[in-house]
Design brief:
This protein is about 40% helix and about 25% strand. It has one domain: Nucleotidyltransferase, domain 5 (2-Layer Sandwich).
């Protein structure tokens, strides 16, 4: 099973993959100029890696939960996923903070997407844990 996860943000989309069912790796983030360009790049990534399961982070709690959920679900609809790809949503609450904590002193916290992809890695690890 080839699994990918997304941490969808307004400026960057963090991406992580799990190709063996055991090890989750962050991939290069997708810089988002607009939602159509980002959707095309995400779709190309999913096709290139032959992903069969997609896990997308959804924020739970907070004042903008409903608005962000609507935006993320709309973005996912732009991907026009084939029926062969299973889609799951996973609570992403605190994943960005956890990514910052994990990388303190290791990487500079620039806006290059590395933290977003580490957050996507955390989201996918949570999803995998919930399935075992």
């Amino acid at each position: 099973m080839k699994i990918a996860s997304l941490d969808v943000g307004l400026k960057r989309i963090g991406v992580a993959t799990c190709l063996s069912g055991l090890v989750v790796m962050p991939n290069s983030a997708i810089l988002r100029k607009n939602r159509n360009q980002a959707a095309i790049e995400v779709k190309a990534f999913l096709d290139e890696w032959s992903i069969d399961t997609l896990v997308v982070g959804l924020p739970k709690g907070g004042s903008s939960e409903d608005e962000m959920q609507r935006r993320i679900e709309h973005f996912v609809s732009l991907l026009e996923l084939p029926e062969s790809i299973a889609l799951h949503y996973q609570d992403e609450q605190g994943s960005s903070f956890e990514a910052k904590e994990q990388t303190k002193g290791i990487i500079k916290h620039k806006r290059d997407g590395r933290l977003d992809s580490i957050a996507a890695k955390i989201i996918l690890e949570r999803w995998l844990e919930s399935r075992s």
